[in-house]
Design brief:
This protein is an alpha/beta fold. It is built from 13 helices and 14 strands. α2 packs parallel to α4.
Length: about 375
């Protein structure tokens, strides 16, 4: 193993536009943590839709180069060659999402060129996504496209130095296409953890959110988009019934960008429930989001619980010790690394008991970023 003073890492991802790409935000925060630990880290976005021309920046005190999505493969490889010559990285970490690099997730040409240009440098693959068509609700076209993505991934994982992913489901699926061990590398939240709020500060945040006529309600937080397979009607009906049994009122609060879930939110907010109200708070600064999460009673994961481990917004809620309600879609396997959070912190909504609503629990906050940075260093063989 080499010492930190001689170790450098090049991190590759799709986009580095702050606040517009979840994997880019993840890459930035992880790169900063590695830099602070003494590991020199540089970032390269290979397909940045917000970059009109190649741009060199410093993001979160980390050097970053952003290459336009529209740039030719030749131009991208020329920029990569210059960066390698200048930085002399000893490790490459590829933050892999198929659709980040190609409109149909078929990045064969880019990956082939990458391996040629990297010329034997060890490449660690962090598979945030693997291939599409995994859901039982996926149509034949999506499944066929997924089969092509899977074939490409299998082809290039043969040359990986190490592989990781964020959840047990992907770990199992990846293990069917590679002989290398697939390690679990937990995700951390997409919002930095700041100082803990006092009880008075939490109350002030709650007072800003809740309607005056319902200022003692439990707050259930949806952070970000609403997944298309979220069983909203069944979920809300059951929650409404359990609130009735607990003698409590609840308020569903949405923060952040909903994107394609806007119609779903409008449908939810119009639904008549005896014990539920709805507040759309919209986009906020990172500090405001941090404060809101600390002040709520429960999070709601609209992503199936099998895949909760790849949701940065869900991780942000869990890191702050809040219990999370969600649903299973196919398997009954929770998509978190073993012992990542406290037992009982993530709840299948169908088993939510009224007692949990009478006096909601708060768990010990756990900032996952230092753990993730250390696990990645270990995977790369860095002391």
């Amino acid at each position: 193993m080499k010492s930190d003073s001689t170790t450098s890492i090049l991190m590759l991802c799709g986009s580095l536009e702050p606040g517009r790409d979840g994997v880019g935000d993840y890459t930035r925060r992880l790169a900063k943590a590695l830099n602070l630990s003494g590991v020199k880290t540089t970032m390269l976005a290979l397909a940045d839709k917000q970059a009109e021309t190649p741009a060199e920046e410093v993001q979160a005190d980390v050097p970053a180069i952003r290459l336009p999505y529209s740039a030719s493969l030749k131009q991208k490889m020329e920029q990569l060659a210059k960066l390698i010559q200048r930085e002399q990285p000893e490790h490459v970490v590829l933050q892999y999402v198929p659709f980040s690099f190609h409109p149909k997730g078929l990045a064969d040409s880019l990956l082939k060129a990458l391996y040629h240009e990297l010329n034997g440098l060890p490449i660690h693959w962090m598979c945030h996504e693997i291939w599409c068509g995994l859901s039982t609700q996926s149509g034949i076209k999506e499944r066929l496209l997924g089969a092509l993505q899977r074939r490409i991934l299998r082809k290039y994982l043969r040359h990986a130095s190490s592989i990781s992913t964020s959840n047990p489901d992907y770990q199992q699926r990846l293990s069917t296409i590679t002989t290398l061990p697939v390690q679990l590398l937990p995700l951390f939240g997409n919002i930095p953890c700041s100082h803990a709020l006092s009880a008075a500060e939490c109350k002030a945040v709650r007072d800003q959110i809740l309607p005056l006529e319902n200022d003692n309600a439990l707050i259930f937080l949806i952070f970000g988009r609403i997944a298309p397979d979220f069983p909203a009607q069944a979920f809300l009906q059951f929650l409404d019934q359990q609130l009735e049994r607990a003698g409590r009122q609840g308020c569903i609060v949405s923060i952040g960008r909903i994107d394609r879930g806007e119609a779903a939110w409008q449908s939810l907010a119009k639904s008549p429930y005896s014990n539920l109200s709805f507040v759309r708070a919209g986009e906020m600064s990172e500090d405001e989001v941090d404060r809101v999460i600390q002040a709520v009673d429960f999070g709601i994961a609209t992503t199936p619980l099998e895949g909760i481990g790849k949701s940065g917004s869900s991780m942000a809620i869990l890191e702050r010790g809040k219990p999370m309600l969600g649903h299973f879609l196919q398997k009954q396997t929770l998509g978190l690394c073993p012992n990542q959070f406290a037992k009982g912190q993530v709840i299948d909504y169908r088993y939510l008991q009224p007692e949990r609503l009478k006096t909601p629990l708060t768990y010990c906050p756990q900032d996952q970023l230092p753990l993730v940075a250390q696990k990645l260093r270990t995977s790369l063989g860095i002391q």
